[in-house]
Sequence to fold (1050 residues):
Amino acid sequence: MGGVHPDDNKIARECPIEVLPLPDTVYVSMAQHLGAPAKPVVAVGDSVKAGQVIAEPAGFISAFVHSPVSGTVKSIAPRKDLAGNPQIHVEIKVEGDEWAEGIDLSKDLVTSIPDDRNAMLDRIKACGVVGLGGATFPTHVKLNPAPGKVAECLIINGAECEPFLTSDYRVMLERPKEIVVGAAIMQKILGGCRCVIAIEENKPQAVKVMSEAVSSLGYAGIKVSVLKKKYPQGGEKQLIDAVMKRQVKSGGLPIDAGAVVQNVSTALAVYEAVQKNRPLVTNVLTVTGENVPANMQHNYLFRIGIPLSFIIDHAGGIPEIAGKIVSGGPMMGKAVSNIEATTVKGSSSVLYLSEEMTRRKEASQCIRCGRCADACPMGLEPFLLNRLAKADDMAALEENAVQDCIECGCCLYSCPANIPLLDRIRIAKGQVMGIIKSRNIKK
Amino acid sequence: MTSTIIWTIVVLAGLGLLLALVLFFVARKFKVEEDPRIDEVEKVMPGANCGGCGFAGCRAFADAAVKAPNLDNNFCPVGGNEVMKKVAAILGYEIAEKVPQVAVVRCNGSCANRPVVNEYDGLQSCRVKAALYSGDTGCPYGCLGCGDCVAACQFGAISMDPQTGLPAVDDSKCTACGACAKACPKHIIELRNKGPRSMRVFVSCVNKDKGAVARKACMAACIGCGKCAKVCPHEAITVADNVAYIDFTKCKLCKKCVAECPTGAIHAVNFPVLPKKTETKEASNE
Amino acid sequence: MDKMLVSPSPHIHTRTSTASLMRDVIIALMPAVIVSVVFYGWSELLILAVSVVSCVLLEWAITKYLLHRPSTISDLSAVVTGLLLAMNLPSTAPWWVAVTGAVIAIGVAKMTFGGIGQNVFNPAITARVFLLISFPAIMTDWTAAPGFVDFPDAISGSTLLGVYSEGGIDALMPFGYGTGRLYQDIGGSAGEISCIALLAGFVYLLVRKVVKPWITLSIFGTVALISFIFNMADPAVYTGPVFNLLTGGMILGACFMATDYVTSPMSTAGGIIYGVGIGFIVMMIRYFGAYPEGMSFAILLMNMVVPLINRKFHQKKYGRA
Fold:
């Protein structure tokens, strides 16, 4: 159903993961995950070690945040995020690189999985693991379905369907066994359901390496599945449809369809949390762009809290062609208006797009070609939603399922008249979700 | 031939009569009894259907006004006291006169005062832009300049000033319906008392950042220094979250704060121009 | 760039534009245009040129002087309308008929509704029907291609459908009805004579994913089915499927006019309903109507119900089975 085929542009796919050096100062955001921002538990002047808890969850859907470096807390104050909006950040001056006790920093693979499910879940929670596929939903919540809900299939998302991004690909090539162990851990936590590692067909090397890792480790019930190349193949709902031939009911959660979806990088983070007691303070991001010189294309293992400007400088500065800097993929990523913003757990790229590639063209009249509806992976009719949104017709918007929109961007991407469909639909979706929420509360 | 014509006339006339009768009886049968005062009230309403009163339109307002026990919560900002007096007369209620108000744009982040640091390329809508990010200037509180307020105004009272990039309110057209204030995602527009001969003093800034940060983003920002609050003889000015606010019910238009403000964030409008000032203006023009 | 761009996602855009889609339609029409120019010569070329030029000029003039809007001619939709209009005219038509057609197509059917995307009726078809009713003699003077067709003198200047409409199956017999020869010698408007060229163009549109095949296939399917049933019931009165699929404006209409984005339904299911409706109406007109050909009327009639179809038939939504 639906989907579009933008150019792949996985330019940085052959760039091995490099370890990014540490800057003088890091700024750790308290809003690194979906849900309530974490509450700082350190004070200005405290000295902290890498991997030490500096903030705790402030609600059911929230997560621990750890210090990515060792050093001294300089301030706890609002600082502008990617979008220029103030968020509380903990500023830490980097001193050496000392890790907290009990963290296994060795590279040895630990394949034996503990038996205690709850202990593993606690470990994942304590290590601040969140989904690294984009939404940064706290992983321990997702791995602990509500009573009565049973997971039938754990899908490890290696689709990486966004053009340009190669971080998941590199992680699959370089840490395949860790990912498989991580998958096996989650499989065990979920009660031994089957597990599918789903990879798009445009990554044959990753398919090969992951398949080898699966067979060499010999966990039961894990297999690699090859998906068609299509955006958004890696969307949670689309992935469930592709792998399980099953759809998540409107308004429902994946678990309602018996599915739990976790990204490959999340599987790696789960492995490190459970087997190595290592909190989530690093991730891999891609620095890339079309017509960006080869020596400026990188895949970096970064510590969270490093300002984007530091990464940009380290990778060789902003290339001349850049007209827009995007954090994340070109379809769903966020445009960066403030390069002083810091990296968070879910940062996946610093993407340079040329003005020619990215500047919106002037919108003309809708020619009713229906391409937006063909492209919509949720089967919605963006042309209709756009019209209803213009008219502020909330009832009709709800009836036409604007709340099901996953904001993948296929409609706006595919519109030959350059109509900014998603811009308006996204706002309307927010309004309708608000209406539905307040109605449910009243009930 | 003639018979065809006659038959045509007869059939059409008969059909017309029949349908008229049907319509007549249907209208009779399904007639909804309504309080006749609703019609009367609607007649004296301005008929703008702007929704400024909080109801869907003038008819809905009239309906609500007739059903309400008093008029304390029903006020037509467009018609103002005159219309409300008529409404009260029809319904036999007493009303207290309200002070006329006007929409005031509390941002002075013009192109000259507030440098643009990036280029917004999405849909030209403040709502969309505000949901995306803090805006194309360093000030996350200021006007986004896409003109949602202009689109919301049914009276053509707001227009974007191409020189400043900010919305300008035409006092004579503004009815204080509040549509613009609701449309502004940054809550910059406030309904304030119109003041004698439209004279008003207000802080034209809502930036809550600390002084240095605010000043860096915009030369005309309120830096929350509090000088205005100290100099105000009427205790009309309060400073909270690094930004000053003038209570228009207490302000006596003495303009002491205007002279005191180091960034020019406090505006005094529609005051008669002092002769001295005009001279210098003319001199500079020459 | 000194200032970075910032916009909501997505940050990239397809290269397909309204103009590129229209360009593809023009390319797809080219084989048929070339064939008809080869068959009919300079007079056909003149009609094509007058029609296209007057459509484009009119659209430009209307946007500039009446609507005071930026011109929309660069989206090439006026060129497509002009081409389709010319392909609906006989090559013998005088130039002013093409100009009148352009006024109806662009001036009445398209721009009064608000220009591209807003019109209810297909502009070229509206013009064709207007001309057909206003100038029936000119519009049905199908002089056979010179040096190509050896029709008996008595009926030259009429299409096979016209022949059938006047005289039934018997009248078709001299042309070799029921044999392969018939279809080598079809006279008609430019668009009607070159089935293979038109189909080649349509395949191009399908390959380029400009249009989807459902509307066209459902028209063909319905026409084939209805004529198969009637033909089986009484072959002496009703023409068969092959005849009905290859004659008249069937292919031009089903491939290029009924598939017009603006005036056809958006959903696949709606498209099939729409196609079935066209197929049904066209066969009813051909078999029982006063006009020999009903493609234009069928499309126009179904254009009217498109808003209703769009209201009723929606895309299949994810997770709402």
Q: What stands out?
A: The first helix of chain B runs from residue 2 to 29. Chain B touches chain A through 15 residues (CB under 8 Å).
